[in-house]
Specification:
This protein is an alpha/beta fold. It is built from eight helices and eight strands; from the N terminus they run αββββαβαβαβαβααα. The radius of gyration is 19 Å and the shape is globular.
Length: 221
């Protein structure tokens, strides 16, 4: 009897694992299809009014190597005239610190006009950043900036939210290859949550009234 229950447990575990793999595979296929044709390097990126920079951890109040790579890419896009405003979206109360504040300081230190940088402290994940860009800041056409391992998921979620979104790959100087491999694996695992967020149409964790800051930045001469 004990062996029978053990065999049943193994079979159920195997079935659960298979179902999980199928769900992740299907979710990943949706992401890759939705993002297809909408991912660029800086040199080939189309023009858009706004760059959306997705946050990640800060270290000692300064952007980590990954976040600095995203911000350098955004600054390049502004300098090249491919965008006129930057929306930095991250966790303003995260465990590692205030991501949008660190992002804003880094961009202004790279010569981006502070009046053209808008901070969203409640972009708690990729889905929330996309939906809040649309609903709170009135963004319609956007270039989403993040590393290559994250870019397809970000573009797919923003486009599902109704944004005319293209993705721009950010570099990651100083990032060990092992870190990027681990992040790529994590991103595949996050595909299921991304698909569920898109299908469920959930509200962001924090809802805010409309903010005219992006519109004001775009109105600058």
């Amino acid at each position: 009897m004990r062996r029978r229950w053990m065999r049943l447990g193994v079979r159920l575990a195997a079935a659960g694992l298979l179902a999980g793999l199928v769900a992740v595979g299907g979710s990943r296929a949706w992401i890759e299809t939705a993002a297809s044709g909408h991912e660029y390097d800086v040199a080939g990126a189309p023009a858009a009014d706004v760059v959306l920079v997705l946050g990640t951890e800060v270290v000692g109040g300064r952007p980590s190597d990954r976040l600095a790579g995203r911000l350098d890419t955004a600054a390049d896009l502004v300098r090249q005239g491919r965008a006129r405003a930057v929306l930095v979206s991250g966790d303003g109360h995260g465990d590692s610190g205030d991501e949008p504040a660190a992002m804003t300081g880094y961009l202004t230190g790279r010569g981006v006009d502070a009046r053209r940088v808008v901070s969203d402290p409640y972009g708690l994940d990729t889905y929330d950043s996309c939906v809040r860009a649309r609903d709170v800041y009135g963004v319609h056409r956007v270039l989403v900036v993040t590393q290559a391992y994250h870019l397809s998921r970000a573009v797919a979620l923003c486009r599902h939210a109704g944004l005319l979104a293209d993705g721009v790959r950010a570099g990651c100087p100083g990032c060990p290859a092992s870190l990027l491999r681990n992040k790529a694996v994590r991103d595949v695992a996050a595909s299921g949550k991304a698909a569920w967020d898109a299908v469920s149409g959930r509200q962001p964790a924090v809802e805010s009234p409309a903010d005219p800051a992006v519109r004001a930045a775009l109105a600058l001469p």
